[in-house]
Fold this sequence. Notes:
Blueprint (H helix, E strand, L loop, with lengths): L1 E2 L2 H21 L6 E7 L3 H17 L2 E7 L5 H13 L5 E4 L9 H7 L11 H8 L8 H12 L8 E5 L6 H9 L8 E5 L6 H6 L3 E4 L17 E4 L3 E4 L7 E4 L4 H5 L4 E2 L6 H19 L3
Parallel strand pairs: 1-11, 2-3, 2-4, 5-6, 5-7, 7-8, 8-11
Antiparallel strand pairs: 9-10
Helix pairs in contact: 1-10, 2-10, 6-7, 6-10
Amino acid sequence: MQLLDGRETAEQIRKELAEAVQERKKAGKKIPHLAAILVGNDGGSLTYVGAKVKACDQIGFESTLIRYDDSVPEEILLAKVKSLNEDKSIDGFIVQLPLPAHIDELKITQAIDPKKDVDGFHPVNLGNMVLNLPGFLPATPAGIVELLKRNNIVTEGKKCVIIGRSNIVGTPLSIMLGRNSNPGNCTVTLAHSRTQNLKEICQTADILIAAIGQPDFVTADMVKEGAVIIDVGTTRVEDKSRARGWRLKGDVNFDEVAQKCSFITPVPGGVGPMTIASLMINTLKAMELKGK
Ligand code: GUN
């Protein structure tokens, strides 16, 4: 078994982006500027947004973090999105999800200018993705595809099973891995909570991707010998041995499955860093698309 090391691959990408920033500086061009809106104090969201800001610092991008209380009215958030759409100094921005229940996530997502939607969540970008037209790819699926590519994992003709059909991971990934590209050209099965015979379906997978947010859901008996395993899960579980009292746990029972597979992503240090690297790639692209 070999680890698919997302930290190392993301580090490589950050270096390439840092070089691009230096080139831009030398040429007197604008430095990419990412803004992030964070509502509330959800632990996971705080960690992710913090990591996004840190990645900007490492690469040399500018970043702005805008925070609101949990109780922020939807109109205030919409007004902020509108002002970021119009702010020429901001090249791309994200609104960290999930949002509190009183805010309509789709309404917020749809209010973002697709040209600044570096998360790739706007219907225009998702539509472009489906049609393989230029646009922003959602960060987690794009990060997974980049991880496969940079680690020379053959996908052509392979059977890929994705567990979880979310709008931001499973559904877009099923399209990206199924299309005529490299990585791609997989025969994709998108499994979900109503799938029958899930274990048998997973056993047929050359590439098995778990994105459901249920710790240890994928066990060794579900995995084909030599399969490639991608674990998107990042659930916080209690861990009294750690000072902070928790650790991250993936959707795959790592110790069991690692014995059987050819490649596997660790949690943490697998898909997470690649998601952030993809967001950085999209941010540079947002500025280049404007011809700046
Ligand atoms: N919540 C979980 N993943 C993501 C992501 O990639 N972007 C945003 N904005 N929110 C998320």
